[in-house]
Amino acid sequence: MPNVASVLKEEIRRLAKKEARILTRPLKQALNAERKQMAALRKQVASLARESRNSARAAAKVVAPAQEGAVAAPVGWRKDTVRSTRKMLGLTQGQMAKLIGVSPISISLWENGRNTPRSKAQVKVLEARKLSRADAQARLGIATAGKARGRRGAGTRRAAHKAAGRRQARGAGRKRVARKARGAGKKRVARKARGRGRKA
Q: 37 lies in which domain range?
C-alpha cells in the first residue's frame, strides 16, 4: 500500500500550488500591466528627449546668428550688392575693404558668394553705394593724388607752351634780322651802282 502520509503531502502540496496560482494570478496580471506601462513611459520619455534635443538645436541655429549680429538683411540688399557697388565706385577690392572697414579677403568671399556679410557690414555697403565716385575716392585719399597729377600736368603743359612761344619768338627775330640784312645789302649794292654810273 502506498504511504498515506506521502500521498497526503503531495496532495497538500498540489492544492497549495493551485491555491497560490489562483491567489497570485491577479498580482502577475497587475505586474505585467505595470511592466507594459513602464515600457510605454520609457518610449514616451525617449520621444520627448529627442524632441527636446531637436528643439534645442533649432533654437541654437536661430539664436547664434542673432548673437553675432546677423539679423534680417536691410532693404535694398542683393547678393551682388558688394560687387556692383565696388564697380560703380571704380574701386579695387582692397580700396572697397578700406572704405567700409573690413579685410580684402572678406570682400572677395562676399563677391564670390562663399560668405554673407553681417548686418552692420551690409549697412556700410549700402551707405557707400550712396556716394559718388569722387566722394569715395576723396575718402580714400585718391582724389588728392589725382589733383596733384593734374596740377603737374597743367604745369608741364604751360611750360611747353612757353617754350614753344619762345622758340617762335626767336624764329621770328631771326627772320626779321635776315630781312633787314638782305634789305641793307640791296641798298648798298644800289648805291654803289649809282655811284659808278655818275663817274662814267
A: 1-67
For 108, the grid coordinates are 572677395
Q: Cβ-count burial of 188 within 10 angstroms (0-12 exposed, 13-18 middle, 19+ buried)?
A: exposed
d(CA 157, CA 160): 5
Instruction: Give domain status of residue 14, yes or no.
Output: yes
Are 154 and 113 a contacting pair, CB within 8 Å? Answer: no
| Cα distance between residue 117 and residue 97, in whole Å | 12
pTM of the model: 0.39
Please give the tally of structural domains in the chain.
1
Q: What is the pLDDT of residue 24?
A: 86
Whether 40 is in a domain gets the answer yes
pLDDT above 50 for 144: no
Q: Which three cell numbers stand for residue 123?
A: 549697412
